Amino acid sequence: MRLFPALLRRAAAVLAMVAIAGQAASAAPRALPVGRCLNLGNHLDTGDAQDKRLAAEDFHNIRAAGFTTVRLPVNWAKYSDPVGRGHGISPLWMARVSAMVDAALDAGLNVILDSHHFDALHGDPAAASPWLAALWYQIGWQLADRPTTRLWFEIDNEPSDRLTNANLMATLGPALAAIRQSNPDRPVLIGGENWSNVESLASLPLPADAHVYPTFHYYTPMGFTHQGASWVRPPQPAGRSFGTPADMARLAADAERVRQFIARTGRVPVLGETGVFTSVPLPQRAAYTRAVYQAFAPQGVGVCEWAYTNTFAFYDWRARQWLPGLLEAIGLKPGKAR
Ligand code: BGC
Predict the structure, then answer these.
(1) Domain, as residue range, for 314
(2) Number of structural domains in the chain
(3) Are 292 and 332 in contact (CB under 8 A)?
(4) Nearest atom (ligand 1) to Cα of 310
(5) pLDDT tens, 26-45?
(6) Exposure on the CB side of residue 214, measured as CA atoms within 13 A
(7) Does residue 93 register a pLDDT over 90?
(8) Counting atoms of ligand 1 from 1, which one is nearest the CA of 195?
(9) Which residue, by CA, sits nearest to atom 4 of ligand 1?
(10) What is the DSSP letter of 112?
(11) pLDDT tens string 214-239
């Protein structure tokens, strides 16, 4: 007879804990502390063959400008064995990328390390999934002792072509499992179909893993951000400006999509890429950068600008200066070391 009230008390206590956990989930969605972030675009993803070779001093430069995180896009597939069972990564490439990760960490930056331009994966997801898993198995063990609070993995940049939200976890799941062998609790980012556009969040499958974070990219409207970009089909004509009432309404609607995603999932996505091609006049690039930052950052979304020195450049490496107006657009002050 005495057991019954005791059981009731216990049940009430458990219910209270569940309620508190529920409250905590709705009151404080899970977010990675990305903050202001810069992509090291077209360096290690294009084979490090650009004019400007990435060096340790670049990370100090980026940290001094006030960024807290860098996203390091890396083409791992190109430097690995495409056919051998282990898909061995070239030791030289592994050492080069590891040195860049360490240089960023040493400079006080958080790092999002991805796999970029793995086109074979997007063309035939089922066939290339074991290759992706083999890459992350090697990367995971290589970097397992770096702090989980500051180094985060992103399994695949911009799923596209035949890799959709429908087969996303079947394709990326083995890579996540390979990472988890050596990195049980390292944050891992996963982006959705159609180049991880903001619409992809609505049906993004999220595995039951407390350390997985969603990510998306934002280049809307493409006719503005990618005008003159040779790699976009069809090519976008030059001369489009940004900031009409329709542009701003679209941005507000997209910010609302993100708000709803956070409310539904309790996870805050990372905006892994956004920016404007360098062919666009700087004041226009700055206006877009400011508008996008102000639309998403107040929701706790970390924003990674594309990119440091190339294609959508933030920094003029020949003149050794930040391009006017872009740091200011995300609330940073050029020349002020932090
Ligand atoms: C690609 C870059 C491209 C950028 C903007 C990135 O994901 O890797 O090559 O410049 O998107 O289109």
Answers:
(1) 4-18+36-329
(2) 1
(3) no
(4) 10
(5) 568 999 999 999 999 999 99
(6) 30
(7) yes
(8) 7
(9) 306
(10) E
(11) 999 999 999 999 999 999 999 999 99
